Amino acid sequence: MKNAEKIKEYAKSLKWPEFKIIDRYIIKKFLGTFFFSIVLIIVIAVVFDFTEKLDDFIEKNAPARAIIFNYYLNFVPYFAILYSHLFTFIAVVFFTSKMAYRTEIVAILSSGISYRRMLWPYFISAAIIAIFAYLFTNFLVPNATRVRLEFEETYLHNGPVNFNFRNIHKQIQPGVIIFMESYSNLSNTGFKFSIEKYIDNKLVSKLMGEYVIWDSIKNKWIVRDYYIRTIDSMKEQITKGTSIDTSLNIYPADFRRRTNVVESMDSFELNKFIKEQKMQGAEDLNTYLIEKYKRVSVPFSTFILTLIAVCISSRKMRGGTGIHIGIGLGFCFSYIVFMQFSSQFAISGSLSPLLAVWIPNLVYGIIAVYLYRLAPK
Predict the structure, then answer these.
(1) Which residues pair with 208 in a beta bridge?
(2) How many CB atoms are closer than 10 A to CB 356?
(3) Does one domain contain both 131 and 18?
(4) Would you give the end-to-end CA distance of the chain in angstroms?
(5) What percent of the chain has pLDDT over 90?
(6) What confidence score (pLDDT) does residue 209 get?
């Protein structure tokens, strides 16, 4: 009977806590401060960005309508979601510190509410922000980013750059590998070109040409001064010619694609793109994987940073709210540096992209638990 009663008591403790006035108060303070801080920082960011790019806008004769609706209207959600977890941290530190100095935290704990119970409205608010951040990052912001990047290509960047790629190896489809000794994206021409086709890991044909060029009218690649070597068991046949059309699962735009183009892809497009790049053996695959994993790890970090913020700002300290905000900013900047540092290791191939993206959350999760144990209860 005693065991049954203990089980019932434990089951009751697992129930969702009853919603109280203090919960509404904290949620209102949390979300209100969050949106106020994010609007304030965005206004400052837009002013600085506009000042920096004003000369480019004037030089390229960018229309005011395009600047407002194509660039800044799509810049704002991108910037807001990119740093939403850090804005959350600053917001929690700010309003919780003020509650602590007005002894509101002491009053809450003295009324019989446990410290763990007091954290519920914080995590409810963090969950709302994290869910919105996840949905916006994976499905809504990419569309806005696509419009913004098109504006940047038209009015901010200096047109096409003559990138000369060397020693290009790509698997354009299973068992089909292309090679170019060099490629120029100004003339859309690859030199010392070859296509190798394998069946059951055995070479069955190889096409080689002096160069391959993109025909924009036919939307096909044309190989010049070619010969084809066909292998059938012990037999070998060679065919020569001056020009031949070929359809390849690769386009000139693939050589001009900027790394940040993945920011304009929603979750489904990004997964498909990564699958194609993995098949082609892309060198910068880790960069794309980092972008994919960040879209989950960054919204999740909202919970960790919220717990850290509550723990460091719910205790009175000499120096007032400024000390709390200073410590909070220190945590924010250290988190960003840690994320960038681990990402660079993943890009260089020294660390798994998945591990690199989640290491900051693991480290700061341990810090959060430690601070929670030290928090005044």
Answers:
(1) 194, 227
(2) 24
(3) yes
(4) 33
(5) 42
(6) 92
pLDDT one-digit tens code per residue, 277-308? 888 777 788 989 999 999 999 999 999 999 99
Handedness of CA 370, 27, 42, 84 (dihedral sign): positive
**Measuring CA to CA, which residue among 155, 160, 180 is closest to residue 170?**
180
My answer on whether 241 and 300 are in the same domain is: no
Count how many domains the chain has.
2
In this structure, are 84 and 228 located in the same domain?
A: no
Q: Do both 329 and 358 map to the same domain?
A: yes
Provide the greatest CA pair distance for the chain: 92
User: Which run of H or of E encompasses 46?
Assistant: helix 21-59
In a domain, 260, yes or no: no
- b/e sequence 168-196, b meaning 16+ C-beta within 10 Å: bebbbeeebbbbbeebebeebbbbebbbb
CB 188 within 8 A of CB 214: yes
Helix axes 21-59, 120-135, angle to 10 degrees: 30
Query: Is 121 part of a structural domain of the chain?
Result: yes
Phi/psi at 161 (5° precision): -110, 140
Q: Same structural domain for residues 128 and 109?
A: yes
| Angle ∠(43,49,51) on CA atoms, nearest 5 | 105
**Whole-prediction pTM value?**
0.80
| Main-chain dihedrals φ then ψ at residue 193, nearest 5 degrees | -95, 145
Alpha-carbon distance of 377 to 372, in angstroms, equals 9
- Helices (H), ranges, 120-191: 120-135, 141-155
DSSP 247: -
**DSSP state for residue 265 in the 8-state scheme:** S
Residue 352, Cβ density class (10 Å: 0-12 exposed, 13-18 middle, ≥19 buried): middle
